[in-house]
Amino acid sequence: MSILRTNPPALHVPPGYHHVTVTEPGKLVFLAGQCPLAADGSTVEGGLLAQVDQVVANTLTALESAGAGPADVVRTVIYVATTSAGELSAVWDRLNASALAEAFTSASTLTGVTVLGYPDQLVELDVTAALGTARER
């Protein structure tokens, strides 16, 4: 299976991600939304960026359990409980500086939302990965 990431010439040049990600038929991995929860189920303290760090750690663990890694990710949706463009940018920057950064070169969406499901939760990450890939760019 292969992953092809492209940007159609008629669309704007995105900041790090690709507009289109295409995979050949094969095994897909769909993660539940990864939340900023510690192993005991509590929402981590320390604010937005600490929560991003926990989401990254949880996502890496979930991907690894399926035999996948950041390079296998074909789509991400990032939800942030904010109306601030600055906070959205801070989350994007933190994710792209993390061990999960390669995941965000695929089709990615970053959006502000009103509320997320756990008390004091500020961020959540939805990830789809494709296994058995020969990576192409």
TrEMBL record:
What domain of life is recorded for the organism? Bacteria
Gene3D superfamilies hit by this protein? RutC-like
CDD domains found in the cross-reference section: YjgF_YER057c_UK114_family
A Pfam family (short name) is Ribonuc_L-PSP
Q: What is this protein called?
A: Enamine deaminase RidA (YjgF/YER057c/UK114 family)
Q: Which organism is it from?
A: Amycolatopsis magusensis
